[in-house]
Amino acid sequence: MAEILALVALILAITAMNRSRKNAAKLTEEIRKLRDELNLMKADGVLPAPPIAAGADAALPAPADATAADGEAPFASPWLQARQEAGGTGERAQGEAAGDATQAVEAPSSMPAAAAGGDLTPVRESLESRIGARWAVWVGGLALALGGIFMVKYAIESGVLSPAVRLWLAALFGLALVAVGEVIRRRGQPVAAQPFQNAMIPGVLTAAGVVTLFGATYVAHGFYGFMGAPLTFVLLAGIAVATIGLSLLHGQALAGLGLLASMVTPLLVSTDEPDPRRLFAYLTIAWLATLAASRFRRWQAVPALANAGLGLWALLYLAAADSVQVLPLTLALIVMLAGVALLWPGSQSPQDAMSAASVDAIADGTRQPSEAEIATAAPREASAMAAASDGAAMPASIRVMGRWQRILAPAFMPVSLSAAIAATLPAIVLAFLHPLPGSAAAAFAALALALAALGAFRAWALYPAVLAHLCALAGTMVLAGLSGRLALETLMSLPGQPSFDSAAPISVAGSAPVNLLLLLSAGLALVGAAGIRLWREKAPAHAALCSLLMAAFPVAIAALSFAAFGNLSLDVRHGLFALAVGLLFFAGAEVFSRTMTEERGRVAELPQWALVSGGFAFLVLALFALTDGLATTLLVTLLGFAMVLSTCLRPWPVLPWAMVGAALVVAVRIGWEPTIVGAVNLSKTPLFNQLLPGYGGPALLLALSAYLLRAWPGERARNLLQALACLFVLLAVAILVRHAMNGGVLDSAAPTLGKQAIYTLLAAGASAVLMTLDLKSPSPVFRYGSMTIGGLSMLSILSAHFFALNPYFTGELTGRWPFFNLLLVGYLLPGLAFAGLAWYARGRRPAPYVTLLALTGAALVFAWISLSVRRYWHGEGIADWKGFLQGETYTYSVVWLLTGVALLVLGLRFDARSLRLASAALVFVAVIKAFLVDMSNLEGILRALSFIGLGAVLIGIGLFYQKILSGRGAPPLGNTSAPHAPTGNAGESRGMLNAE
Fold first, then answer.
1. If exposure means fewest CB atoms within 10 Å of the residue's CB, which of 533, 693, 859, 944 is most exposed?
2. pLDDT value of position 179
3. Pure H helices in 44-76
4. What is the pLDDT of residues 75-117, one digit of tens each?
5. What is the pLDDT of residues 120-139, one digit of tens each?
6. Of 565, 559, 562, whose CA–CA distance to 506 is shortest?
7. Can you tell me the distance from the alpha carbon of 290 to that of 303, in angstroms, rounded to the nearest whole number?
8. Which residues form a coiled coil (predicted)?
């Protein structure tokens, strides 16, 4: 009974479809006549002509000729029909046929409805059209598919006919649906059905038939056992591949259904002895079929899903297999990458995808948009492109959107991104599996290189290029730190693999993949060089990307290999490799620079910068591998200095920055090992030890580099080298003094004033460096960054130098030497540094900030003077528990008064109001001390001398001010309106005082 009902339903469906086709044909004819009538009315000026997306109007007959021939204006269809009967019928009919053919060719299934209709304005679909033209088709297709499934279900539950007969009927029903869909397709689809491409009747019928066939085949195997696993697998795979082939006729949705069927087939059919070679061979064939269909129809969604499916199968296999066979999986993924590179998208240019680059070029006015570009563009972009074709300017928002879309969403992005992710994730998992099996690391490297080659040889492969290098770096980190599945075991349970207790480091297990990692590094460098060579003229942006990746990731991989598996004292293998690759980088930079044209932009210059930077980085790695200790520090700085000397031969802007890079490397090395040669090997001789060349050598070479670049056009690099030279000089002095005052011992576990002084000097130098950069290249980051570092360092001085680490409170010994001791490092040198920073910031930073810097410097110098007095009276230990001596108390008064006078003289000499204020404050403190401390603590001659000295100094200061300010009738301090011009020395002094 069910079979009869299904047959009747099929006959009724075919009858209804034929009737619908005839009605659609009539409607199509009426629409064509109305369009002809509308074109004639436009020619007579009755209605304005809207923009036409496709080229249909070009093929229509000239309306003006028809109007001239008949002498009357067309208004209605009967008049148009009468005019056709009067004359010119054959010519008009021929033009109409050509116009329909042009429209059919230029309006593919993926074209928006507005473009296919000839108007860029999208037509709002009514509820009636949705129900009648879309939902009826979809629901009907679903009903047919369910009918096939129910027929299969009936075959299981009912006993009217044998199971074999019922399954054959279900299979015949599926074949009948496919055949009916093909018949309807061949009999033609009406032109009016173009807006309903996603609801085409032939495709829906074919999909329903495929589902029925797939279900019948699986039930025959899974429930009744009529077929064995091999035959069932072949049939299901054949149905899936055939579905993909039929998608060429019925659209992308059917291709997606076939792809889903092909990916699910291995899950539905299982054997007792699974063979990964057959599995991935089948998946590769299904993937190739999908890609071939996508190549003919220019699809992107289906191949992206195919890439994702293949990658997901690879991950499932790696997670579930007891004994992993790496070769089949690796070959399948490499075939996927090769197919994307050669088959689809292959060598297609980015313009073939109608990406945002077309919109950007049209917006810049470099060319006019074609009708096909307008037809296939998004609605917003299509409007702007149509306006540009009429001579209107492209809106700025559209231009910006096009540029960003061109960068972040290149052509064929769904295909390229899905392929990159599908290859990256299994590659990283393979790195986790090493050394069980041992070929896992080789498979990881092969996948990373294959993906990098795809990114380099195709201009649209932005994401494969980036993800390939990230994958290579991530896998290298895994190989350098883990031997088995330690990290992966925290996420899932993998059978047949070692546990946490049985896993051993790679270096211990004896399977360190050093040669493989070095080969991977060299391969990435070679791939990057090929990308630069291929795209430096055709696509400079992609060549720049290849150069940046080439400069950063190969050296990072080689450095990780050296740090994890190399001999840090002397490693010839890593050293020679880095030396050879570094020299090749410089040779590539020379070749590239010779081919650079005069008119080049910043993007075109990036490969030169990247090649030189990469070569310098590899040579630095070679020095670290082949040398050790002091030699490494000096040779790295000499290498940077050689780059500066090379500016005499090659005026490359990147060369001076190599010296900056060398200084940064040396700074990091000093931070890692302040003793340069190790605490055990450091000589205890003051000054003349390894610290002098280790710190002084880089400072000297930085100063020489800044001097040699005094005529260099790039001021930014020169000023930065000057600032770095000053920083290294201060650091060298501080570290030598610290070494001398600690008896030749530099390291200490507890925080000390000496260490804090080094940090303070570094902060002052960093603030000066940022200020220098801001002066030559103004930037809010440099400006506020320099003041932030200065402010934080002042807070650190207040908390650490004066309280937390002050030897007066901590009891720390200051050293045996009278002058070169802890007080010099902790107070005098930072005080001079902040005084110099304040002098450098005058006129360049806000006055309150400059005043705070100057006061901080003066406070540090005052602390050095006061603590030095205490050290003179108490020796190395100046702790507070020792109390104060009368001679010490008197000395404080004398020294403070002399310091106040010195600050006053300096303030007048340099016209620094902050120093004069500091002088007044210090003298005020001395006065308070004399009356509150000296009067009660001093006795005899010391008390008298204290007050006599104080009075003499105060009177001297008063006389000095009176002579300067009113000796020659000068106005009071701060009055800038002098009645007479200043003359002589008094006039010069008054001018300095009145400057502020």
1. 944
2. 82
3. 56-59, 63-70
4. 344 434 444 444 444 444 444 433 443 333 333 333 333 333 4
5. 444 455 544 444 445 555 55
6. 565
7. 6
8. 17-44
Structure tokens at 280: 């991935």
- H or E element in which residue 326 lies: helix 326-342
CA distances from 310 to 269, 296, 419, 536 (A): 17, 21, 9, 34
Please state, in angstroms and as integers, the Cα–Cα distance from residue 312 to each residue in 304, 306, 344, 419, following that order: 12, 10, 20, 11
- Residue pair 631/575 in contact (Cβ under 8 Å)? The answer is no
Question: What are the residue ranges of helices labelled H in 377-513?
Answer: 379-389, 396-408, 413-433, 440-457, 462-481, 486-489, 506-509
Cis peptide leading into 274, omega within 30 of 0?
no
Residue whose structure tokens are 């479809």: 17
* 796-834 exposure pattern, b = at least 16 Cβ within 10 A, e = fewer: ebeebbeeebbbbebebbbbeeeebbbbbbbbbbbbbbb
Token pair, residue 405, equals 């879309």
How far CA 944 is from CA of 46, 870, 899, 932, 938, in Å, comes to 116, 22, 21, 14, 9
Cα separation, 474 vs 62, whole angstroms: 66
**Distance of alpha carbon 331 from alpha carbon 278, whole angstroms:** 12
CA distance 932 to 926: 10
Q: Could you give the C-alpha distances from 316 to 266, 468, 685, in angstroms and in order?
A: 12, 21, 65
8 A C-beta contact, residue 733 and residue 762:
no
Tokens of 765: 């130098």
| 730-787 residue pLDDT tens | 788 878 877 876 778 776 556 788 878 888 888 888 888 888 878 877 877 678 888 9
Nearest to 332 by CA among 264, 278, 281, 260: 281
The token duo for 986 is 């008094």
Which residues 6+ apart lie within 8 Å of 867 measured at CB?
A: 807, 808, 814, 823, 827, 878
Euclidean distance between CA atoms 820 and 737, whole angstroms: 6
Residues in the chain: 996
The pLDDT of residue 56: 39
Cα separation, 259 vs 933, whole angstroms: 95
| Residue among 794, 783, 795 at smallest CA distance from 846 | 783
Average pLDDT over residues 943-952: 69
Q: List the one residue out of 594, 598, 623, 624 whose CA is nearest residue 611.
A: 594
Measured between alpha carbons, how far is 826 from 833 in angstroms, rounded to an integer? Answer: 11
Q: Which residue has the tokens 């300095």?
A: 992
More confidently predicted of 905 and 988 = 905
CB count, 10 Å around CB of 548? 20
883-888 long-range Cβ contacts below 8 angstroms, 24+ apart: 884/937, 886/937, 886/938, 886/939, 886/942, 887/942
- H-assigned helices in 482-601: 486-489, 506-509, 514-535, 540-565, 572-594
- The residues, any chain, with a CB within 8 Å of residue 420's CB and separated by 6 or more, are 451, 454, 455, 461, 463, 464, 467, 468
pLDDT, position 99? 41
Which run of H or E residues covers position 603?
helix 602-626
Q: Rounded to two decimals, what is the model's pTM?
A: 0.66
Whether residue 154 has pLDDT greater than 80 = no
- Pairwise CA distance, residues 838 & 860, whole Å: 13
Euclidean distance between CA atoms 426 and 253, whole angstroms? 28
DSSP 650: -
3-class SS letters over 608-638: HHHHHHHHHHHHHHHHHHHCCCHHHHHHHHH
Highest mean pLDDT among 224-228, 243-247, 557-561: 557-561
Q: Residue 351: its pLDDT value, please?
A: 58
Contacts with 992 (C-beta within 8 Å, 6 or more apart), sequence order: 908, 909, 911
Kindly compute the dihedral angle of the four CA atoms of residues 918, 923, 927, 930, in this order, to the nearest 10 degrees: 110
